[in-house]
Design goal:
The chain has 398 residues and is an alpha/beta fold. The chain has two domains: 2-182 and 355-394, Response regulator (Rossmann fold, 3-Layer(aba) Sandwich); 203-351, 3-Layer(aba) Sandwich (Rossmann fold), CATH 3.40.50. Helix content is 49%, strand content 13%. The protein has 16 helices and twelve strands. It has helices at 15-30, 41-45, 47-63, 65-75, 87-104, 114-125, 159-168, 217-223, 238-247, 261-270, 280-288, 302-312, 325-333, 336-351, 356-383, 387-394; strands at residues 2-7, 34-38, 108-111, 133-136, 153-156, 176-178, 203-207, 229-235, 252-256, 273-276, 293-295, 317-318. The strands form two sheets. A six-stranded parallel β-sheet has the order 2-1-3-4-5-6, sandwiched between helices. The chain has a six-stranded parallel β-sheet with strand order 9-8-7-10-11-12, sandwiched between helices. Helix 3 (47-63) packs across helix 4 (65-75) and helix 5 packs across helix 6 (114-125). The longest helix has 28 residues, at 356-383. The relative contact order is 0.12.
């Protein structure tokens, strides 16, 4: 049995976990000979550490978004890609990562967050492990934390990142797969034959993230006076859910956290547009469904950078807080020329991408096959009494 170790970060639902889950489900549907295991590195070290760091992260973003954004730009997304101010990370965590890998004995490692990727990369460059590694990026950019040296394959979100890795990090093109941010295969494409012309009533999905982050009070106030139907994804935000229930408005329906991908896909199918934050997974799902995307707010750091890329590519519409949200959305949805141009950009973006699940499975097949060949050769040489080879292959022989 070949074992794949997935390394996201934190226990809370996030794009890193959704991407890992999408790949895991896709691999399981294709082969019964693959064991997939997902481990949060921080929780593996200490559940208390994981809860403390996650709580601090969420509180910091809410309490002081400006300082978080400044810190992110200063330490995680700089114009100095070769600068690695993470030596103290290594002293604290590198040995822990090595112990985890030795304990789990994976055939392949897949990182969906930059933090574990950094340590796996360092271990490979120090020749402490020789296991193949895949980075799967879950934003529309790559921050400085991600490990790149020693990484065997890079599954990237767009062509710009592919060119960046080739130029700045000297990654060979055959090791970069431009497949977009992985979304679950249950999210089938929804192609509109024509723009939403002469539609009397629109159905609009409003998403605030898995934790219900984002101040939507102003948006909700406007929604109450609109003729459109709104479904509000509340995530884990019970307070927001109760607030909408108490509105008792026939045009506004609160939706609690959905763990079912099928249920989420059905919501996408029923809606004409989505209002959301620029999180990598939600945006990628909406792009696959060919939905007009309106950005009502963004968290500092990652989402702000995502927003800049998406707006530049014409893949989202930014809602201006100074004007009516509803009017801005209707101006797009009721303009067939503008809508056709938008859908053309979405289609061009989607056509640049390969099927991420199938691509990863092809890589997995290749790595397993190469591993089997190496084992046969090593076993044959050991039979001819080359003891040094036995020592070299014993530690990480799978």
């Amino acid at each position: 049995m070949n074992k794949i170790l997935f390394l996201p970060l934190f226990q809370m639902p996030s794009g890193h976990h959704h991407a890992a889950d999408a790949i895991i489900d896709g691999l399981k549907s294709r082969s019964e000979e693959i064991e997939c295991k997902k481990i949060d590195f921080l929780s593996d070290i200490s559940p208390f550490l994981e809860k403390s760091v996650a709580s601090f992260y969420l509180k910091w973003i809410k309490a002081s978004p400006k300082t978080y954004n400044l810190a992110y730009q200063r330490f995680s997304y700089t114009n100095e890609p070769d600068k690695k101010p993470y030596l103290w990370y290594e002293r604290l965590f590198l040995n822990k990562m090595e112990q985890l890998i030795i304990r789990e004995k994976p055939t392949l490692i897949i990182c969906t967050h930059g933090f574990p990727s950094y340590f796996v990369s360092r271990l490979k460059m120090k020749h402490k492990i020789n296991i193949p590694v895949i980075n799967i990026y879950t934003d529309f950019f790559i921050n400085d934390i991600w490990g790149k040296e020693g990484i065997d394959y890079h599954v990237v979100p767009n062509l710009r990142i592919k060119k960046q890795l080739e130029k700045n990090d000297r990654v060979s093109p055959e090791r970069i797969i431009c497949s977009g941010i992985p979304v679950h295969e249950v999210f089938t494409e929804k192609i509109k034959i024509s723009p939403l012309e002469n539609k009397e009533n629109y159905s609009i999905l409003v998403a605030g993230g898995s934790s219900g982050l984002g101040n939507m009070s102003e948006l909700l106030e406007e929604v109450r006076s609109s003729n459109a139907d709104f479904k509000i994804l509340c995530g884990n935000n019970g307070e927001l859910y109760e607030q909408i229930v108490n509105l008792n408005h026939e045009k506004i329906t609160p939706v609690p956290y959905l763990s079912s991908k099928q249920a989420m896909n059905k919501l996408y199918e029923e809606c004409d547009a989505i209002v959301t934050k620029p999180g990598g997974i939600t945006i990628s799902e909406a792009l696959k469904k060919h939905l007009p995307i309106f950005i009502h707010s963004s968290l500092p750091g990652q989402e702000k950078i995502n927003e800049e890329f998406l707006a530049k590519e014409g893949l989202v519409f930014l809602l201006n807080k100074e004007n009516s949200y509803i009017d801005q959305m209707m101006n797009v949805l009721e303009d067939p020329i503008l809508l056709r141009d938008y859908l053309r950009k979405v289609e061009n973006y989607n056509q640049q991408l390969e099927s991420s699940i199938q691509v990863v499975y092809s890589i997995v097949e290749k790595i397993i096959l190469e591993g089997q060949r190496s084992y046969v050769i090593a076993h044959s040489l050991k039979q001819h009494r080359f003891p040094f080879l036995k020592r070299m292959t014993s530690k990480y022989n799978h």
